[in-house]
Amino acid sequence: MLFQQKKALVLSDFDGTISRVDVGDSVLNRFAPKCREAIDREVVNGSMGSREAYEKIAPLVRVDAESLRAHVLKCSAIDPFFVRFYRLAGKKGVDVKIVSDGLDFYIRAILEKHRLGEIEFYSNTVVFGDKDALTFDFPQANALCGRCGTCKSRILHAHRLMYEKIIYVGDGHSDICPSQYADLIFAKGELLRKCRQESAVPYRAFHDFREVSEYLKKNV
């Protein structure tokens, strides 16, 4: 029996894309001392990858699971059109998965808050320890590169043969590499600026998931 590809897959970033707030940044601003600012500068200028940054930041964070959850749910706000988009995608036979260089703890909490807990997501993980300490694990890292905690490109490639089309939705620096292996990009923020400079992949500027929904209505 021949393998039959599915119609399409939408891979979406979480922070700044599905979530209107960068929750990971909010968490670290709230629970890590200001000395993480030096680490952030190295990430921004490219001298340090996100995985190394997480490993350096982890000893600075002091928070228990209950306090972290309360903060996350208080600051979270998802794209007002995302739920509608997700339901439409299901009707169209389009799969939706989340790829994030953020943390599983808050992604799961926010999805469950909006009754979206069934959405599959890939991210870094939080491990809570004694005395409010925590560590980060990287189950989606790429051993051949190692810069990012979650290698979104590796995840995209793992799904490549399963779908006729892969649509990538994102906004940030961690979306630049994986989006270049997609068939179509919906971009804003830093990703849009990079696409305008040099993307070899067709892309569309977007503001919210209403525009992604309109594309699915007309093209899938």
Offer a few descriptive terms.
220 residues; alpha/beta; Rossmann fold; 7-stranded mixed β-sheet; 10 helices; 41% helix
What is the CATH class?
Alpha Beta
* C-alpha end-to-end distance: 25 Å
As a whole number of angstroms, the C-alpha radius of gyration is 17 Å
Give the strand order, joined by hyphens, for the main sheet. Answer: 4-3-2-1-5-6-7
Number of domains: 1
Q: What's the CATH architecture?
A: 3-Layer(aba) Sandwich
Task: Catalogue the unreliable spans.
Answer: none
Helix segment count? 10
Task: List SSEs in N-to-C order.
Answer: EHHHHHEHEEHEHEHEH
CATH superfamily name? HAD superfamily/HAD-like
> If you average the pLDDT, what whole number results?
91
Give a quick account of the main beta sheet: strands, pairing sense, barrel closure: 7 strands, mixed
General shape: globular
Strand portion:
15-25%
**Helix content bin:** 40-55%
The third-level CATH topology is Rossmann fold
Secondary structure category: alpha/beta
Please provide the count of β strands: 7
